[in-house]
Amino acid sequence: MTLTFAPDTDDAIPLYLVPKDGVDAFRKTLSGRDAGWLDARGFKGNLGQVVSFPGDSGKVALAVVGYGDGKARARKRFGTATARGVLPDGIYRLVTELEGDALDEVALGWLLAGYRFDRYAKNPGPKANMIAPDNVDAARIEAIAAGEHLTRDLINTPANDMGPDELEAAARNLASRFDAEISVTTGDALLEANFPLIHAVGRASPRAPRLIDMRWGADGPNLVLVGKGVCFDTGGLNLKPGASMGLMKKDMGGSATVLGLAHMIMALGLKLQLRVLIPAVENAVDGSAFRPGDVLPSHKGLTVEINNTDAEGRLVLADALAVADAEMPDMIVSMATLTGAARVAVGPDLAPFYATDDMDASAVKAGAKRAADPVWEMPFWTPYEPRIEPGIADLDNAPSGGFAGSITAALFLKRFVTDTDRYLHFDIYGWQPAAAPARPKGGVGQGARALLEALPGMLKL
């Protein structure tokens, strides 16, 4: 399955995009028969409403999809994408006066609506496809859709087929496709290379922990993407209840998202030097598992008291962030399915993010709006820093009290980025709980499109 536009053809079926306030004008362009057909179908231009018109041969001659009004589009982004699953089989040509970001959103939504996860069961996508609309950068939109496809597939794959080995294989496949360099430090070699936190979290699993390190590009500013790769999280000795463990195949959603973003960056040939770091582990339980009360060293030299083995994501990220920080890149971005507190605060749709630079934060928010990839800025609130300082060690991985869980986790990570001025952290969910336009239930990327949109301005590409 590939999410691409159809090749151009003279036989394409016209697909008219009509807003609520444009229905009367569109009706006047139709023949008497077709106008009657439109009326009989009750077409009001509602967002995603579809009517197809039969021709003399019985095949579809033209079709119309409602574009709604501003309020409807604000409440349901990619709303027209539902048309792809409703329209009859065929290749369509979009007819619209839209341009710019609005047209890009319609085109991208069409491609994303074709995604299906079909590795284990037949789950055919819609048979309708569309020629790339005029005045859109089709190659760019297809690259974005392909990156999102990669992210979704990685998250949706269950942990029995997506452990650290398989995550490494996915990274190697991506590196091979774009001639990137990749190295992996695995198992006890992590201790020799001074990555003690990654090793500690993953050592109880028979699937060896590792740090995946991919580099691409020889010119331009330096960008490092760090993605949490906890391929399954039992909670460790602080074992999760069954209901909380059910979705933990998605705990590598941060790594899946940075790999998807890396695909977009490399496919589009952005003029930057990219590094992707993924600490890939399984947080399992056996006699060698790390324990509550342990005090562990880190790559940075800071010590960490373990007060909850289920707060493991920040531990593996800490070592990866420290090695990223040592090279003092122009920007570091971390992405992780890190805290339940973030979900309580903003729900599953919004990706909370933190930024050390106000201009970067503004750029991400503007990019998110243009890319229909919603984010929400959160503060690195320094008055909370004493909460992550336990006294017995430099840092506490799970402060008691329950307040500001996402913020204290972000502050913990920020302690490992001390030499790089520009740092962004995304506390994503990585999962669509119920199907929505262009977003089937299951794994989903968050923040990647917003960042892709913002990067040229932030890094002056």
UniProtKB/TrEMBL annotation:
Q: Name one GO molecular function term.
A: aminopeptidase activity
Ranges for domain Cytosol aminopeptidase: 308-315
In terms of InterPro entries, this protein maps to: Leucine_aapep/pepB, Peptidase_M17_C, Peptidase_M17_N_1
Where on the tree of life does the source sit, at the highest rank?
Bacteria
Keyword annotations for this protein, in alphabetical order, are:
Aminopeptidase, Hydrolase, Manganese, Protease
What Pfam families does UniProt report for this protein, alphabetically? Answer: Peptidase_M17, Peptidase_M17_N_1
Please state which protein family the record places this protein in.
Belongs to the peptidase M17 family.
Question: This protein is called what?
Answer: Leucyl aminopeptidase family protein
What does the record give as the organism's lineage? Bacteria, Pseudomonadati, Pseudomonadota, Alphaproteobacteria, Rhodobacterales
